[in-house]
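User: Second chain of the day. Same drill as before.
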Amino acid sequence: MQHGPAVRRRKLGAELRALRTGAGFTSGEAARLVGWHQSKVSRIETGASGVKPADVRLLLDAYAVRDSQLRELLLVLAGSDESTGRHHWWHAYRGVLPPTYRDFISLESQASAMRTLETSVVPGLLQTPEYARAVTRAAVDGLDDERLDALVEVRLARQDVLRSQPPLELSAVLDEAVLRREVGGPEMMTRQLERLVEAARLPQVRLQVLPFAAGAHIGVTGPFVIFSFSSTSDLDVVVLDHLTSSLYLERKEDLQAYTEAFNALQFHALSPEDSLDYIAAIGGGA
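Assistant: Same format as last time:
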């Protein structure tokens, strides 16, 4: 279990090591190609030290890596500030967002798929502006209006990943408590449930409800997110949110455990079709 930046360094280093060996170079040969000492290559590959985006480019060029998606993903893991398309927009909010949240958004922007269990609130990618404001105000104490506005802007800007090409594939399991918790009053909650129904009809969104009738389940310990990447499964990561930070799990056994847990939750949840009807029925009675 690691904090985001450490996980990113280790994952970046592991991928660079795999690319080097795939290109047929020893660490010493790679170092000579880019004019470094061998120890620098070793520190980067083990995640012992950070690496600048410019150094990552040198290595990728030396290894003849031409896959633009993979190159961009690795540059994001290195902390690249260069903006292309929908990526890196969050740097404009550096003064507002804590580092762990920026890490989360950068992973979200590059992921091909996201699986999430939510037990308390609607996932950020599916929130209405009013709901996002009410949840943010309740979750972060002492916010002035300017900072609250900025955090809501970030929440809504994140939703662009569902409209990009290709869009992020979102699979979400929502505990019924998410639908029943009246955030902002009945009218606001009705609009939020309508938004969920609209989202559930999108081809890139799979939404399932875990009703109270399902009883205790493996997700009662709390929400989690699994990010997957089309370029390489070695970069997949589990994110656990806490009150003041996020924790990132990268070990294969952790990924397997949470993947199996999510599959079990989907099995016990209502089907996407029945979930849509269930949400609509709750919204009609809200």
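The beta strands are 113-118, 169-175, 205-210, 224-228, 237-241, 246-249.

User: Great, on to the next one.
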